[in-house]
Design brief:
alpha+beta; about 45% strand; about 15% helix; 11 strands; four-stranded antiparallel beta sheet
């Protein structure tokens, strides 16, 4: 009985692994070269090459995987909306001297994923600088 149970568990594990691999293969994905340190949700990314993956969500909630070398972290968008345009990019916004990713647009799946960012600290309206936005190209190969 123990051999049969072990075989069932092995087959289930292999099926689950293949399912995850298929899920990852159908993901919106790309690589980007981050020019500055940036906050993405609760994650802080150092400047350099990173990979973003958004597997197809069967139950509606998208999860965004961020990969740097061998490290994988995840974050969840606040909402999604149809993409505007045909490029894949990250939108960085500078808030109180720090950069935050507030959007990832994927040409692969035609979606724009929006993320939370802090509100600027209160200041004099006369001395308030306009919000700075930077677009970082995501190579969707």
């Amino acid at each position: 009985m123990s051999n049969k149970t072990n075989r069932v568990f092995r087959v289930a594990a292999i099926a689950a692994g293949l399912g995850i691999a298929a899920l990852q293969a159908s993901a919106a994905q790309g690589t980007f070269n981050l020019p500055v340190e940036a906050h993405w949700g609760r994650i802080v990314l150092e400047p350099g090459i990173h990979r973003v993956d958004v597997p197809t969500a069967e139950l509606g909630q998208k999860i965004v995987y961020l990969r740097t070398g061998t490290q994988t972290r995840l974050t969840v968008p606040v909402t999604t909306q149809p993409a505007t345009g045909t490029r894949s990019y990250l939108r960085l916004v500078k808030v109180d001297g720090a950069y935050y990713v507030d959007a990832y647009q994927s040409q692969f799946d035609g979606q724009k994923y929006l993320f939370a960012r802090p509100k600027p600290a209160p200041s004099d309206e006369a001395s308030a600088a306009p919000e700075q936005e930077t677009l970082v190209e995501v190579d969707s190969k």
